[in-house]
Specification:
396 residues; alpha/beta; Rossmann fold; five-stranded parallel β-sheet; 21 strands; elongated; binds flavin mononucleotide
Protein backbone atom coordinates (compact mmCIF):
# COMPACT_ATOMS: atom_id res chain seq x y z
CA UNK A 1 0.00 0.00 0.00
CA UNK A 2 3.03 2.28 0.30
CA UNK A 3 2.43 3.94 -3.07
CA UNK A 4 -1.30 4.52 -2.47
CA UNK A 5 -2.67 7.99 -1.75
CA UNK A 6 -5.93 9.23 -0.31
CA UNK A 7 -7.35 12.75 -0.61
CA UNK A 8 -9.18 13.25 2.67
CA UNK A 9 -11.90 15.91 2.89
CA UNK A 10 -12.73 16.75 6.50
CA UNK A 11 -16.17 18.35 6.81
CA UNK A 12 -17.64 20.48 9.58
CA UNK A 13 -19.13 17.92 11.95
CA UNK A 14 -18.65 17.15 15.59
CA UNK A 15 -17.04 13.82 14.57
CA UNK A 16 -14.25 15.60 12.63
CA UNK A 17 -11.82 14.76 15.44
CA UNK A 18 -12.18 11.06 14.59
CA UNK A 19 -10.62 11.77 11.21
CA UNK A 20 -7.35 12.41 13.00
CA UNK A 21 -7.41 8.80 14.23
CA UNK A 22 -8.27 7.68 10.69
CA UNK A 23 -5.23 9.56 9.35
CA UNK A 24 -3.07 7.85 11.97
CA UNK A 25 -4.30 4.39 10.87
CA UNK A 26 -3.72 5.20 7.21
CA UNK A 27 -0.24 6.62 7.77
CA UNK A 28 0.67 3.57 9.87
CA UNK A 29 -0.37 1.39 6.91
CA UNK A 30 1.87 3.44 4.62
CA UNK A 31 -0.96 5.24 2.82
CA UNK A 32 -0.29 8.87 1.88
CA UNK A 33 -2.98 11.31 3.02
CA UNK A 34 -3.47 14.77 1.51
CA UNK A 35 -6.01 16.76 3.54
CA UNK A 36 -8.67 19.23 2.49
CA UNK A 37 -10.20 20.93 5.51
CA UNK A 38 -13.43 22.83 4.92
CA UNK A 39 -14.03 26.19 6.61
CA UNK A 40 -16.57 24.53 8.92
CA UNK A 41 -14.20 21.60 9.44
CA UNK A 42 -11.58 24.01 10.78
CA UNK A 43 -14.03 24.94 13.55
CA UNK A 44 -13.66 21.38 14.86
CA UNK A 45 -10.05 20.35 14.16
CA UNK A 46 -7.08 22.60 13.62
CA UNK A 47 -5.16 22.70 10.33
CA UNK A 48 -2.02 22.19 12.40
CA UNK A 49 -3.16 18.83 13.87
CA UNK A 50 -4.29 17.59 10.47
CA UNK A 51 -1.15 18.74 8.73
CA UNK A 52 1.14 17.23 11.37
CA UNK A 53 -0.55 13.83 11.21
CA UNK A 54 -0.79 13.82 7.40
CA UNK A 55 2.79 15.07 7.03
CA UNK A 56 1.44 17.26 4.24
CA UNK A 57 0.09 20.77 4.00
CA UNK A 58 -3.64 21.38 4.43
CA UNK A 59 -5.70 22.68 1.50
CA UNK A 60 -8.69 24.86 2.33
CA UNK A 61 -9.12 27.72 -0.12
CA UNK A 62 -10.44 27.62 -3.66
CA UNK A 63 -9.47 31.22 -4.36
CA UNK A 64 -5.94 31.16 -3.06
CA UNK A 65 -3.20 32.39 -5.33
CA UNK A 66 -0.52 30.37 -3.56
CA UNK A 67 -2.59 27.17 -3.44
CA UNK A 68 -3.56 27.43 -7.10
CA UNK A 69 0.05 28.12 -8.10
CA UNK A 70 1.30 25.14 -6.09
CA UNK A 71 -1.43 22.69 -6.99
CA UNK A 72 -4.54 23.72 -8.91
CA UNK A 73 -7.87 22.41 -7.72
CA UNK A 74 -8.26 20.11 -10.73
CA UNK A 75 -4.82 18.63 -10.17
CA UNK A 76 -5.65 18.24 -6.47
CA UNK A 77 -8.82 16.32 -7.30
CA UNK A 78 -6.77 13.83 -9.34
CA UNK A 79 -3.77 13.61 -7.03
CA UNK A 80 -4.89 10.53 -5.11
CA UNK A 81 -6.20 7.02 -5.78
CA UNK A 82 -9.30 7.61 -3.69
CA UNK A 83 -11.21 10.61 -2.36
CA UNK A 84 -12.54 10.09 1.18
CA UNK A 85 -15.02 12.43 2.86
CA UNK A 86 -14.97 11.98 6.64
CA UNK A 87 -17.07 13.21 8.22
CA UNK A 88 -19.41 13.68 5.28
CA UNK A 89 -21.78 16.30 6.64
CA UNK A 90 -25.36 16.72 5.39
CA UNK A 91 -24.13 19.89 3.71
CA UNK A 92 -21.27 18.19 1.85
CA UNK A 93 -23.56 15.35 0.75
CA UNK A 94 -26.13 17.86 -0.51
CA UNK A 95 -23.50 19.80 -2.45
CA UNK A 96 -22.03 16.67 -4.02
CA UNK A 97 -25.44 15.21 -4.89
CA UNK A 98 -26.40 18.42 -6.67
CA UNK A 99 -23.13 19.12 -8.41
CA UNK A 100 -22.43 22.35 -6.54
CA UNK A 101 -18.91 23.67 -6.65
CA UNK A 102 -18.85 26.73 -4.42
CA UNK A 103 -15.80 25.82 -2.35
CA UNK A 104 -12.64 23.73 -2.62
CA UNK A 105 -14.15 20.51 -1.17
CA UNK A 106 -17.25 20.64 -3.39
CA UNK A 107 -15.24 21.58 -6.49
CA UNK A 108 -12.85 18.70 -5.84
CA UNK A 109 -15.75 16.25 -5.53
CA UNK A 110 -17.17 17.47 -8.83
CA UNK A 111 -13.84 17.51 -10.66
CA UNK A 112 -12.43 14.19 -9.49
CA UNK A 113 -12.19 11.18 -11.76
CA UNK A 114 -11.31 8.91 -8.82
CA UNK A 115 -13.60 6.73 -6.67
CA UNK A 116 -15.21 8.53 -3.74
CA UNK A 117 -15.95 7.08 -0.30
CA UNK A 118 -18.17 9.00 2.10
CA UNK A 119 -18.49 8.40 5.84
CA UNK A 120 -21.62 10.34 6.81
CA UNK A 121 -22.06 11.78 10.31
CA UNK A 122 -24.96 13.88 11.46
CA UNK A 123 -27.87 14.09 13.84
CA UNK A 124 -30.42 11.27 13.36
CA UNK A 125 -33.15 13.71 12.20
CA UNK A 126 -30.79 15.20 9.63
CA UNK A 127 -29.89 11.68 8.43
CA UNK A 128 -33.54 10.65 8.20
CA UNK A 129 -34.70 13.88 6.54
CA UNK A 130 -36.21 13.34 3.10
CA UNK A 131 -33.62 15.68 1.57
CA UNK A 132 -30.71 13.64 2.95
CA UNK A 133 -32.41 10.38 1.88
CA UNK A 134 -32.66 11.80 -1.66
CA UNK A 135 -29.06 12.99 -1.66
CA UNK A 136 -27.86 9.62 -0.32
CA UNK A 137 -29.78 7.76 -3.06
CA UNK A 138 -28.45 10.12 -5.75
CA UNK A 139 -24.85 9.75 -4.58
CA UNK A 140 -25.17 5.96 -4.47
CA UNK A 141 -26.61 5.98 -7.99
CA UNK A 142 -23.64 8.16 -9.02
CA UNK A 143 -21.31 5.40 -7.77
CA UNK A 144 -20.21 6.97 -4.49
CA UNK A 145 -19.24 4.35 -1.88
CA UNK A 146 -20.46 4.67 1.70
CA UNK A 147 -19.34 3.40 5.06
CA UNK A 148 -21.77 3.88 7.95
CA UNK A 149 -23.35 5.78 9.46
CA UNK A 150 -23.70 3.67 12.59
CA UNK A 151 -26.51 3.56 15.08
CA UNK A 152 -25.91 4.76 18.62
CA UNK A 153 -26.00 7.64 21.07
CA UNK A 154 -25.13 11.02 19.55
CA UNK A 155 -23.16 13.98 20.80
CA UNK A 156 -26.44 15.97 20.86
CA UNK A 157 -28.00 13.48 23.30
CA UNK A 158 -30.32 11.79 20.78
CA UNK A 159 -30.11 8.17 19.67
CA UNK A 160 -30.26 6.61 16.21
CA UNK A 161 -28.48 6.34 12.88
CA UNK A 162 -26.05 9.12 12.07
CA UNK A 163 -22.93 8.33 14.10
CA UNK A 164 -19.72 8.32 12.11
CA UNK A 165 -18.49 4.76 11.48
CA UNK A 166 -15.57 4.01 13.77
CA UNK A 167 -12.14 4.87 12.28
CA UNK A 168 -11.05 1.19 11.97
CA UNK A 169 -14.23 0.51 9.96
CA UNK A 170 -13.57 3.47 7.65
CA UNK A 171 -9.95 2.36 7.39
CA UNK A 172 -11.06 -1.15 6.30
CA UNK A 173 -13.40 0.33 3.69
CA UNK A 174 -10.57 2.50 2.35
CA UNK A 175 -8.13 -0.40 2.21
CA UNK A 176 -10.74 -2.50 0.41
CA UNK A 177 -11.24 0.17 -2.23
CA UNK A 178 -7.51 0.80 -2.59
CA UNK A 179 -6.97 -2.94 -3.04
CA UNK A 180 -8.70 -2.77 -6.39
CA UNK A 181 -12.31 -1.98 -5.82
CA UNK A 182 -13.22 -5.67 -5.86
CA UNK A 183 -14.43 -5.35 -2.28
CA UNK A 184 -18.07 -4.35 -2.66
CA UNK A 185 -18.80 -5.18 0.98
CA UNK A 186 -15.93 -3.15 2.44
CA UNK A 187 -17.21 -1.34 5.50
CA UNK A 188 -20.13 -3.78 5.91
CA UNK A 189 -20.45 -6.41 8.62
CA UNK A 190 -22.11 -9.81 8.80
CA UNK A 191 -23.03 -12.43 11.37
CA UNK A 192 -23.03 -16.02 10.11
CA UNK A 193 -24.19 -19.01 12.14
CA UNK A 194 -22.89 -22.41 11.08
CA UNK A 195 -22.81 -26.06 12.06
CA UNK A 196 -25.06 -27.95 14.44
CA UNK A 197 -25.85 -27.12 18.03
CA UNK A 198 -25.30 -29.68 20.78
CA UNK A 199 -27.82 -29.74 23.61
CA UNK A 200 -26.56 -31.60 26.68
CA UNK A 201 -28.59 -34.49 28.09
CA UNK A 202 -26.06 -35.37 30.77
CA UNK A 203 -22.29 -34.73 31.09
CA UNK A 204 -21.48 -37.19 28.26
CA UNK A 205 -24.49 -37.18 25.92
CA UNK A 206 -25.85 -34.48 23.60
CA UNK A 207 -28.79 -33.96 21.27
CA UNK A 208 -27.34 -32.86 17.93
CA UNK A 209 -27.57 -33.33 14.13
CA UNK A 210 -25.45 -34.11 11.09
CA UNK A 211 -24.66 -30.55 9.97
CA UNK A 212 -20.98 -30.22 9.03
CA UNK A 213 -20.81 -26.40 9.02
CA UNK A 214 -19.26 -26.48 5.52
CA UNK A 215 -21.86 -24.23 3.86
CA UNK A 216 -21.85 -21.63 6.64
CA UNK A 217 -18.04 -21.53 6.77
CA UNK A 218 -17.90 -21.16 2.98
CA UNK A 219 -20.35 -18.22 3.13
CA UNK A 220 -18.29 -16.58 5.90
CA UNK A 221 -15.18 -16.93 3.72
CA UNK A 222 -16.91 -15.63 0.57
CA UNK A 223 -18.28 -12.56 2.39
CA UNK A 224 -14.87 -11.83 3.94
CA UNK A 225 -13.32 -12.02 0.48
CA UNK A 226 -15.71 -9.27 -0.63
CA UNK A 227 -14.40 -7.06 2.17
CA UNK A 228 -17.13 -7.77 4.73
CA UNK A 229 -16.27 -7.90 8.45
CA UNK A 230 -17.56 -11.33 9.42
CA UNK A 231 -18.41 -12.80 12.82
CA UNK A 232 -18.85 -16.55 12.45
CA UNK A 233 -20.81 -18.12 15.30
CA UNK A 234 -19.97 -21.81 15.00
CA UNK A 235 -21.47 -24.85 16.66
CA UNK A 236 -19.22 -27.86 17.37
CA UNK A 237 -17.56 -28.60 13.99
CA UNK A 238 -14.07 -29.40 12.85
CA UNK A 239 -13.78 -26.78 10.09
CA UNK A 240 -10.76 -24.44 9.87
CA UNK A 241 -11.53 -20.77 10.50
CA UNK A 242 -11.60 -18.87 7.18
CA UNK A 243 -9.01 -16.10 6.75
CA UNK A 244 -9.97 -12.73 8.15
CA UNK A 245 -13.05 -14.06 9.93
CA UNK A 246 -13.76 -13.59 13.66
CA UNK A 247 -14.97 -16.93 15.04
CA UNK A 248 -17.02 -17.47 18.17
CA UNK A 249 -17.44 -21.13 19.16
CA UNK A 250 -20.63 -22.16 20.93
CA UNK A 251 -22.41 -25.39 21.80
CA UNK A 252 -26.08 -24.77 22.51
CA UNK A 253 -28.82 -22.79 20.73
CA UNK A 254 -29.02 -20.36 23.62
CA UNK A 255 -25.26 -19.72 23.45
CA UNK A 256 -25.53 -19.24 19.69
CA UNK A 257 -28.28 -16.64 20.07
CA UNK A 258 -26.35 -14.78 22.77
CA UNK A 259 -23.23 -14.67 20.55
CA UNK A 260 -25.30 -13.35 17.60
CA UNK A 261 -26.92 -10.66 19.73
CA UNK A 262 -23.53 -9.63 21.08
CA UNK A 263 -22.30 -9.17 17.48
CA UNK A 264 -25.13 -6.71 16.59
CA UNK A 265 -25.38 -4.25 14.96
CA UNK A 266 -24.51 -5.80 11.62
CA UNK A 267 -25.56 -5.19 8.03
CA UNK A 268 -26.14 -8.85 7.18
CA UNK A 269 -27.17 -11.94 9.16
CA UNK A 270 -27.07 -15.37 7.58
CA UNK A 271 -28.47 -18.15 9.74
CA UNK A 272 -27.03 -21.32 8.23
CA UNK A 273 -26.66 -23.31 11.45
CA UNK A 274 -28.85 -26.34 11.97
CA UNK A 275 -30.10 -25.22 15.34
CA UNK A 276 -31.75 -27.85 17.48
CA UNK A 277 -35.43 -26.95 17.75
CA UNK A 278 -35.61 -28.53 21.18
CA UNK A 279 -33.36 -29.22 24.16
CA UNK A 280 -33.76 -31.56 27.14
CA UNK A 281 -35.83 -29.86 29.80
CA UNK A 282 -33.23 -30.69 32.42
CA UNK A 283 -29.61 -31.76 32.22
CA UNK A 284 -28.60 -34.62 34.52
CA UNK A 285 -25.68 -33.67 36.75
CA UNK A 286 -24.17 -37.16 36.44
CA UNK A 287 -24.18 -39.75 33.66
CA UNK A 288 -27.60 -41.39 33.35
CA UNK A 289 -27.17 -45.12 34.08
CA UNK A 290 -29.02 -48.18 32.83
CA UNK A 291 -31.19 -49.22 35.73
CA UNK A 292 -32.93 -52.27 34.33
CA UNK A 293 -36.25 -50.37 34.50
CA UNK A 294 -36.22 -49.60 30.77
CA UNK A 295 -35.01 -46.44 28.96
CA UNK A 296 -35.40 -43.02 30.59
CA UNK A 297 -37.93 -40.56 29.20
CA UNK A 298 -36.44 -37.45 27.64
CA UNK A 299 -38.64 -34.44 28.13
CA UNK A 300 -37.92 -31.61 25.65
CA UNK A 301 -38.52 -27.85 25.66
CA UNK A 302 -38.34 -25.45 22.73
CA UNK A 303 -35.14 -23.58 21.96
CA UNK A 304 -35.10 -19.88 21.05
CA UNK A 305 -35.60 -19.16 17.35
CA UNK A 306 -32.41 -17.35 16.29
CA UNK A 307 -33.59 -16.40 12.79
CA UNK A 308 -36.91 -14.99 14.01
CA UNK A 309 -35.20 -13.16 16.88
CA UNK A 310 -32.66 -11.47 14.59
CA UNK A 311 -35.43 -10.63 12.08
CA UNK A 312 -37.33 -8.76 14.78
CA UNK A 313 -34.36 -7.31 16.65
CA UNK A 314 -34.32 -3.58 17.40
CA UNK A 315 -30.95 -3.52 15.64
CA UNK A 316 -32.20 -5.72 12.79
CA UNK A 317 -29.57 -6.22 10.08
CA UNK A 318 -30.65 -4.78 6.73
CA UNK A 319 -30.48 -8.23 5.14
CA UNK A 320 -31.52 -11.29 7.15
CA UNK A 321 -31.15 -14.63 5.40
CA UNK A 322 -32.28 -17.99 6.73
CA UNK A 323 -31.56 -21.50 5.54
CA UNK A 324 -34.18 -24.21 5.37
CA UNK A 325 -32.96 -27.78 5.15
CA UNK A 326 -35.94 -29.92 4.21
CA UNK A 327 -36.47 -33.46 2.98
CA UNK A 328 -39.77 -32.86 1.19
CA UNK A 329 -41.94 -29.99 -0.16
CA UNK A 330 -38.81 -27.85 0.11
CA UNK A 331 -40.02 -24.67 -1.59
CA UNK A 332 -43.46 -24.66 0.00
CA UNK A 333 -41.89 -25.00 3.46
CA UNK A 334 -39.38 -22.28 2.60
CA UNK A 335 -42.11 -19.84 1.51
CA UNK A 336 -44.01 -20.48 4.74
CA UNK A 337 -40.80 -20.04 6.74
CA UNK A 338 -40.04 -16.70 5.04
CA UNK A 339 -43.43 -15.33 6.10
CA UNK A 340 -43.30 -16.83 9.61
CA UNK A 341 -39.81 -15.66 10.53
CA UNK A 342 -39.88 -12.18 9.00
CA UNK A 343 -36.53 -12.60 7.23
CA UNK A 344 -35.68 -11.34 3.73
CA UNK A 345 -34.51 -14.49 1.97
CA UNK A 346 -34.72 -18.20 2.64
CA UNK A 347 -32.08 -20.38 1.02
CA UNK A 348 -33.86 -23.71 0.74
CA UNK A 349 -31.98 -26.93 0.29
CA UNK A 350 -33.26 -30.43 -0.25
CA UNK A 351 -31.18 -32.52 2.11
CA UNK A 352 -32.78 -35.72 0.83
CA UNK A 353 -30.42 -35.37 -2.18
CA UNK A 354 -27.41 -37.62 -1.54
CA UNK A 355 -24.18 -35.73 -0.84
CA UNK A 356 -25.74 -32.47 0.38
CA UNK A 357 -26.21 -32.78 4.19
CA UNK A 358 -22.63 -33.05 5.45
CA UNK A 359 -21.30 -33.36 1.87
CA UNK A 360 -19.48 -30.93 -0.42
CA UNK A 361 -22.33 -29.95 -2.78
CA UNK A 362 -25.56 -28.08 -2.39
CA UNK A 363 -28.65 -27.60 -4.55
CA UNK A 364 -30.49 -24.52 -3.38
CA UNK A 365 -33.47 -22.33 -4.21
CA UNK A 366 -33.51 -18.69 -3.16
CA UNK A 367 -36.95 -17.77 -1.88
CA UNK A 368 -37.73 -14.05 -1.52
CA UNK A 369 -40.88 -11.95 -1.53
CA UNK A 370 -40.25 -11.50 -5.29
CA UNK A 371 -40.33 -15.22 -6.06
CA UNK A 372 -38.18 -18.35 -6.26
CA UNK A 373 -34.84 -18.72 -8.01
CA UNK A 374 -33.56 -22.27 -8.54
CA UNK A 375 -29.80 -22.75 -8.69
CA UNK A 376 -28.15 -25.85 -10.14
CA UNK A 377 -26.34 -28.23 -7.83
CA UNK A 378 -22.81 -26.93 -7.24
CA UNK A 379 -19.95 -27.22 -4.72
CA UNK A 380 -20.78 -25.41 -1.47
CA UNK A 381 -17.91 -22.96 -2.08
CA UNK A 382 -19.50 -21.90 -5.40
CA UNK A 383 -22.95 -21.58 -3.85
CA UNK A 384 -21.34 -19.41 -1.15
CA UNK A 385 -19.58 -17.13 -3.67
CA UNK A 386 -22.75 -16.68 -5.71
CA UNK A 387 -24.74 -15.91 -2.56
CA UNK A 388 -22.13 -13.40 -1.36
CA UNK A 389 -22.26 -11.64 -4.74
CA UNK A 390 -26.06 -11.52 -4.55
CA UNK A 391 -25.84 -10.05 -1.05
CA UNK A 392 -23.34 -7.43 -2.25
CA UNK A 393 -25.88 -6.35 -4.90
CA UNK A 394 -28.29 -5.47 -2.07
CA UNK A 395 -25.75 -2.92 -0.81
CA UNK A 396 -24.93 -1.19 -4.10
C1 LIG B 1 -21.47 22.13 17.14
C2 LIG B 1 -21.89 21.78 15.75
C3 LIG B 1 -21.86 20.47 15.36
C4 LIG B 1 -22.27 20.09 14.07
N1 LIG B 1 -22.23 18.78 13.71
C5 LIG B 1 -22.64 18.42 12.50
C6 LIG B 1 -22.63 17.06 12.11
O1 LIG B 1 -22.22 16.17 12.87
N2 LIG B 1 -23.05 16.75 10.88
C7 LIG B 1 -23.51 17.68 9.99
O2 LIG B 1 -23.91 17.31 8.90
N3 LIG B 1 -23.50 19.00 10.33
C8 LIG B 1 -23.09 19.37 11.55
N4 LIG B 1 -23.12 20.71 11.88
C9 LIG B 1 -23.53 21.70 10.88
C10 LIG B 1 -22.38 21.95 9.90
O3 LIG B 1 -21.24 22.40 10.59
C11 LIG B 1 -22.80 22.96 8.84
O4 LIG B 1 -23.85 22.44 8.08
C12 LIG B 1 -21.63 23.33 7.94
O5 LIG B 1 -22.05 24.27 6.99
C13 LIG B 1 -21.09 22.11 7.20
O6 LIG B 1 -19.96 22.50 6.47
P1 LIG B 1 -19.16 21.52 5.50
O7 LIG B 1 -19.93 21.48 4.24
O8 LIG B 1 -17.84 22.14 5.36
O9 LIG B 1 -19.09 20.20 6.16
C14 LIG B 1 -22.70 21.12 13.17
C15 LIG B 1 -22.69 22.43 13.56
C16 LIG B 1 -22.29 22.76 14.83
C17 LIG B 1 -22.31 24.21 15.24
Amino acid sequence: MSEKRVLLIVGGGIAAYKSLELVRLLRKAGVGVRPILTKAGAEFVTPLSLSALCEDRVYSELFSLTDEAEMGHIELSRSADLVVVSPATADLMAKAANGLAGDLAATTLLATDKPVLMAPAMNVRMWEHAATRRNFATLKADGVHFVGPDEGPMACGEYGYGRLAEPPEIFEAIMGLLAGGAKPLAGKSAIITAGPTAEPIDPVRVLTNRSSGKQGFAIAEALAELGCRVTLVAGPVSQPTPKGVRRVDVETAREMLAACEAALPADIAVCVAAVSDWRPESVAATKTKKTGDGPPTLSLVENPDILATLSKAAKRPKLVVGFAAETNDVEAYAQAKLARKGCDWIVANDVSIAGTMGGDDNAVSIVTAAGIERWDRAPKSQVAQKLAQRMAEEFK
